[in-house]
Amino acid sequence: MLEDPQRDVLLRLTPGAFDGDRGVWGFVLAQASAQRGDSAKTRAYAEEASRGFAAQLANAPKDAQRHVLLGLALAYLDKKAEAVEGERGVELLPIAKDAFGGRYIQLQLVRIHILAGNHEKALDLLEPLLKTPYMLTAGWLRIDPNFDPLRGNPRFETLAQGT
After folding, report:
1. Which alpha helices (H) appear in the chain, and where do they start and end?
2. If pLDDT is split at 50, 70 and 90, which confidence band does 85 have?
3. Whose CA is closest to 26, among 42, 8, 39?
4. Is the separation of the CB atoms in 109 and 90 below 8 Å?
5. Contact assessment for residue 62 and residue 44, using Cβ atoms and an 8 Å cutoff
6. How far is CA 66 from CA 41, 53, 78, in A?
7. Mean pLDDT of 20-26
8. 80 neighbors 121 (Cβ within 8 angstroms)
9. How far apart are CA 160 and CA 144, in angstroms?
10. DSSP single-letter state for residue 146
């Protein structure tokens, strides 16, 4: 949700701006490139992210956030079958175990399903997130470009209107 000049600055950052974390760096730049419609850069950065997160998971296999971020990177690479890696994150950190962190992980799984084209599954996971106190709101759905593929879907439009 950055303006173009802000996104231009973001896209010039190096991994050093992300404490040397090539996974996070690649993921953030893949997402920004995707929102710009630059599929070549999206793919290149998502490759960096997937390699970075895979290496991190080798050292911390129970890191729920890294599993879901790896799943997102794989979804940006159109590796739909492999992107279900994000489900491992939800298994490791369910909402019942951590109300805030679990919701964050589930929201990222929603994004994986959106990118993979599983819109009904994404909506199935999204609906309960809007029924409990959390940072995600109907207003957020209306402005976040990550939800653009769902626009026009009657279920999504109902959620985005808060009804």
Report:
1. 4-11, 22-36, 39-59, 64-76, 80-83, 85-92, 99-115, 119-129, 138-143, 154-161
2. confident
3. 42
4. yes
5. no
6. 21, 6, 18
7. 97
8. no
9. 11
10. G
